[in-house]
Amino acid sequence: MANRNGFEDGLQKLGKLSNVNELIAVEALEEAANFFVNMLRPAIPRSVSNRQHLQNSLSVKVENNIVIVYFEDESFYWRFVEHGTSKQRAQNFVRGTYEQNQAKIEEIMLSKIIKKMEV
What we know:
- InterPro entries: HK97-gp10_tail.
- It comes from Listeria cossartiae subsp. cayugensis.
- It holds the Pfam family HK97-gp10_like.
- This is HK97 gp10 family phage protein.
- The chain is 53% helix and 10% strand.
- By secondary structure, the chain is mainly alpha-helical.
- It has one domain (21-118).
- The protein has a two-stranded antiparallel ribbon with strand order 1-2.
- β1 (58-63) and β2 (66-71) form a beta hairpin.
- The chain starts with 6 loop residues before the first helix and ends with a helix.
């Protein structure tokens, strides 16, 4: 008589998870990163100077199967806005946006992987 406590089903599902190829994982990460960028753009404070704003320099890049959300080279000062300086308080727009949308980001990645696994 077989033991029907659910461990066999769980083992089969874990076996399917190990079959998820890296391309599907990268696609899921890229979709979640694009969602994060769309949520982050309105949260970024605008510069008072008449130069390029941080909102315009935010990008997503896939390089060697690694998904990167980054600010372009000339926008190095995002760190000062995010973490603050001795004369400026930290605004924490990146961390705050991620914490607010963490569940949705995880849901996007999980649903994309599950959808690809079922096919």
